[in-house]
Structures are given as C-alpha cells and as structure tokens.
Amino acid sequence: MHNLNWDDLRFVLAVAETGSVNAAAKALSVNHATVLRRIAAFEDACGGPVFEREKSGYRLRPDRAQVIEAARHAAQHVSAAEALMRGGSAGVASILRITSTDTLCQTLLPKILPALARRAAPDRLAILSSNAHLDMARLHADLTIRPAATLADDLFGRQIGLMRFGVFSREGVKGPWLGLAGPLANSVPAKWMAGSVAAIDIAATSDSFAVLARMAQEGAGQVILPCLIGDSTPRLKRVETRMPDFTVPVWVACHRDLAGSEKLRSLMGSIEKLFVPHQAALAGDDPRG
C-alpha cells in the first residue's frame, strides 16, 4: 500500500459517477489512459479494487460505497483548502443530494425544503428530479425519496407515507385516456391500464405525471395521477371510474452500505418528521394538496 495521491480522487469520483472510463475522461478533458492510470494508482494506494469491470462499464464494488463517500467528502475539503489558499472562505460544508420524482419535487418537497435545509446546515441540499431510479450504488445521490411497492435490496430506509392515485380530468371534459410511458409504465396504475384500457382509447402518453396533469388541465383527456398533484392542479377534478383504489408506499432511503452514516440517518429522520403534516394530501384525503 502506498501513500494516497489526493489528485487521484477526481478521477475515481468521475468514474464512480459516470460508470465509464471514456465518460470520465471526457468530463475531465484527459485521455482514456490517464484515467486508467489514476484509477490503478488509487486502488493500489487503497489496497484493493474499487470498481468491478463489467461489459456495461465500471460499477462500484458493494463494499466500496463508504470509500467513495469518504473520498467525495475528502475532495470537498481539498477544494476548501484550495479556496483558503486563494484567500476565499473555507466552504467545507458537504452537498447532500436527494433524488425524487418530479411529482414530489414539484409539490411536497418545496414545502418542506426550508425547514429541511435549516436542519441540514451547514451542509447544503441538492434536489435531483428524476422519475428514473438513479444508481445509488454509484452514489449518484445520497438519499432517495420515491414511491415503490417495496424497497430494493441494496437500499436501507423507512416508509414515510402512502401515495394514493386517482383518475382526473378537466371539469366537464372527459375525453380519451392519457397514458403512462417511460419509467411510469412500470407503475401499478400503468399495469392496470395495460389490462383495462384499449390502446385505441389512449390519445397520448408521457413519462411525467407533471406533464400529464398539464395535458389534462388543457382538456386533452382523463389521466391517472397521484392525488397529491391531481388535487392541487387548478381545473382538474376527480373522475369516478372502475379503477381500483391504488396506494403505493413512499420511502426515504440510502445505499445499504451507507446505513451507518449518522449524517444520512439524521437527514432521513428529519424528512420523515417533515412529511407528517402532509400525509393526508399524499394519501388523497386532503383535496387542497
């Protein structure tokens, strides 16, 4: 084992975040060989491999998530030291990245963000809106808040709410159906639609509930939405249909290998408490949203 070259951290983190040597090289404006050399030097200094080399790219080894998390924080401190040398402020606070769906990012999260930011201080929060599940194993985010029937095996967390779905349309306009595409196609409501609504009756689709709500608001048709967004969208009303009552748990979680992080556990606890006043809206029991 050799002494660690802190400059190698940039290369390790770039590969961890992109999952590709080529992508990391492009992001860092260096060649492929330089990235490979720096990764090898870092692994040699750390006493073992950090990544698993797969055909699809470089994947972080399950037992190395804490190494990368520590490296990311170390890199922030190195940047802070450089800022001090240039006469700036230390700025050693971490950036805690929270990923969630566009529905939660545009409805509930903005309401709890001020209080959550105060509790997280001096660390800063970054909210990443994505309906696709970010790769927590590559530490694309520190925490995830999203609806799912069950929590994935590689995640550690807790249920913080229950999301109800309903059928909505513009008042006085029923029209055809609007379908769920992309990541939404794997949702429970989408699976019901696949077996209950003929393709010819679907006028358009989208991979975003926020976009679907806007389409329905303009009279494009009826659509299945989380009640949290449907109830709070002007001019949309619930429609009585034969659709069953669908509810899905909402979770806050981190990668299982980071479950011992006191900072992440504290942040998860704060999110759980801040969700409590919004449980009724999330469950479709408060039409004010």
Automatic annotation (TrEMBL):
Family listed: Belongs to the LysR transcriptional regulatory family.
Q: Which organism is it from?
A: Marivita hallyeonensis
Enumerate the GO terms in the molecular function aspect: DNA-binding transcription factor activity; sequence-specific DNA binding
Please identify the protein, giving its name as recorded.
Transcriptional regulator, LysR family
The protein's UniProt keywords, in alphabetical order, are: DNA-binding, Transcription, Transcription regulation
One Gene Ontology term from the biological process aspect of the record:
DNA-templated transcription
- Domain called HTH lysR-type: residue spans: 4-61
| Keyword hit for Transcription | yes
